[in-house]
């Protein structure tokens, strides 16, 4: 860990001011991958300067996509016309960096008839298997060989439309199916699909390219394959995970933060919970202002779920705010089996949190019968004090930062480099909100 990976936080002051969120971490890299399917260049704007975008930019360049900055400072132009001629021998260097490489399967199979996919990275919040992805790709006609350093795929007979029913509405697998089906021969029907706003935005990107995609009200997506797609011009939807993180930071520190570009439609479920806890917000054309009203915060019972439920990526920052609520709050994490480990560090800061392997919520989830610690009871309000913290993953780590800002005294937060995966300019944003942080 380098020195610049460590931040010393003097907490106890409310965060006050304004920050801007740009395009979503969970859409932008995927829209970049979609550009590989086009016959001509695509232009993507509202692109944040985050590590996951850099990783995918480097990966696409290795595959022969020419990526250059666009006319505006936040846009990228992606030209895939040289992909066929690219050498892919260096792809292994990207192993372990993010979840995105798996989404290149369909686009590379369509263009080259083969694809090499390195081992995936991303947050360690569960096992994160890719069995749904591989089952779906095989149904399209792909042959998948597992190699020590990754996956080798080919499509000797090409890729053909198919009927896929997902055991669980997986975001990544839904995107995998979309990116493969749009240029497969014939029609594809995807049942039990995920319908997160980032997926809808990816569908918008693909439709601009010439794809025909229907979304039914029952989580069924129907795709009619087409033989060619063009480039696109698209403005990425704003990052609702980052917006919710700053909202929770405002609430936990007793502050008042305007999140420029936050969109009500993407945050509707979060806003309901924020209000039930006692947080105030007001929606304007340019963003959403979130603030602590000065009165007591309420405890709540909450389950994370696939969209339109309460998103799992919002859970960790919200738990910090719940340490300041009066009474007992209950959180049941139903999307990942191992996303509550971060709570033990919050206990070191003075929070009262007990974690359980039972399902503490009305929905019996996939993890109830295993020994997975996936429910928590938070008792509050607890005064928090400074501690020495090491970031475990993106959202858990940002929660530590929020807790350190809410705590009285000094905390040392190690491993903040991970934040660069999903929080653009986080040091500058913290400073602009009056946080006392130093490297
Ligand atoms: C880069 C990106 O967009 N990441 C998001 C994406 O992750 P990601 O796309 O990896 O998440 P999924 O929706 O696929 O995973 C949901 C659940 O399905 C399981 N599963 C998934 C695939 C599979 O082949 N087999 C399987 O069992 C996972 O272990 C997990 O328990 O959606 C998650 C759920 O909203 C978010 O937390 C992540 O921020
Ligand atoms: C889990 C997350 O990301 P990833 O899927 O990229 O690991 C996240 O953004 O909180």
UniProtKB/TrEMBL annotation:
UniProt keywords, alphabetically: Cell cycle, Cell division, Cell shape, Cell wall biogenesis/degradation, Cytoplasm, Peptidoglycan synthesis, Transferase
Keyword Plastid attached: no
Pathway: Cell wall biogenesis; peptidoglycan biosynthesis
Subcellular location: Cytoplasm
Transmembrane intervals: none
UniProt xrefs under CDD domains: UdpNAET
Ranges for domain Enolpyruvate transferase: 10-430
Protein origin, superkingdom: Bacteria
EC number: 2.5.1.7
Main location: cytoplasm
Gene Ontology MF terms: UDP-N-acetylglucosamine 1-carboxyvinyltransferase activity
InterPro entries, per database record: Enolpyruvate_Tfrase_dom, Enolpyruvate_Tfrase_sf, MurA_subfamily, RNA3'P_cycl/enolpyr_Trfase_a/b, UDP_GlcNAc_COvinyl_MurA
Catalytic activity as recorded in UniProt: phosphoenolpyruvate + UDP-N-acetyl-alpha-D-glucosamine = UDP-N-acetyl-3-O-(1-carboxyvinyl)-alpha-D-glucosamine + phosphate
UniProt-listed SUPFAM superfamilies: EPT/RTPC-like
Job of this protein: Cell wall formation. Adds enolpyruvyl to UDP-N-acetylglucosamine.
Record-stated family: Belongs to the EPSP synthase family. MurA subfamily.
Protein name: UDP-N-acetylglucosamine 1-carboxyvinyltransferase
């Amino acid at each position: 860990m380098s020195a610049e990976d460590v931040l010393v936080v003097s907490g106890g002051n409310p965060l006050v001011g304004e920050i801007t969120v740009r395009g979503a971490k969970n859409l932008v890299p995927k829209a970049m991958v979609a550009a590989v399917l086009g016959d001509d260049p695509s232009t993507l704007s509202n692109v944040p300067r985050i590590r996951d975008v850099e990783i995918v930019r480097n990966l696409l360049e290795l595959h022969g996509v020419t990526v250059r900055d666009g006319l505006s400072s936040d846009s990228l132009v992606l030209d895939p016309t040289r992909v066929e001629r690219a050498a892919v021998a260096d792809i292994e260097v990207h192993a372990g960096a993010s979840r995105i490489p798996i989404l290149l399967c369909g686009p590379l199979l369509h263009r080259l008839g083969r694809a090499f996919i390195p081992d995936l990275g991303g947050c360690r919040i569960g096992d994160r298997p890719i069995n749904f992805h591989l089952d779906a790709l095989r149904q399209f006609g792909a042959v998948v060989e597992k190699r020590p350093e990754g996956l080798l795929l080919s499509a000797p007979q090409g890729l053909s439309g198919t009927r896929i029913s997902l055991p669980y509405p997986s975001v990544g697998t839904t995107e995998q199916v979309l990116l493969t089906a749009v240029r497969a021969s014939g029609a594809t029907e995807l049942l039990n699909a995920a319908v997160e706003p980032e997926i809808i935005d990816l569908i918008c990107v693909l439709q601009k390219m010439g794809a025909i995609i229907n979304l039914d009200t029952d989580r069924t997506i129907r795709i009619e394959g087409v033989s060619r797609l063009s480039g696109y011009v698209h403005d990425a939807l704003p990052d609702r995970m980052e917006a919710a993180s700053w909202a929770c930071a405002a609430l936990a520190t007793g502050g008042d933060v305007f999140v420029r570009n936050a969109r009500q439609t993407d945050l509707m479920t979060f806003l309901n919970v924020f209000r039930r806890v006692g947080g105030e917000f007001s929606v304007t054309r340019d963003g959403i202002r979130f603030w602590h009203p000065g009165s007591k915060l309420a405890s709540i019972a909450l389950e994370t779920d696939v969209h339109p439920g309460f998103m799992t990526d919002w859970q960790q920052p919200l738990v910090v705010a719940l340490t300041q609520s009066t009474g007992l709050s209950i959180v049941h994490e139903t999307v990942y089996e191992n996303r509550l480990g971060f709570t033990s560090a919050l206990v070191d800061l003075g929070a009262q949190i007990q974690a359980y392997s039972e399902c503490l919520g009305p929905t019996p989830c996939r993890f109830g019968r295993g020994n997975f610690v996936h429910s928590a009871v938070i008792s509050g309000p607890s005064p928090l004090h400074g501690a020495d913290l090491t970031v475990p993953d993106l959202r858990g780590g940002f929660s530590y930062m929020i807790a350190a800002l809410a705590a009285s005294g000094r905390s040392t937060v190690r491993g903040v480099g991970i934040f660069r995966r999903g929080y653009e300019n986080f040091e500058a944003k913290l400073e602009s909100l009056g946080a006392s942080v130093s490297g």
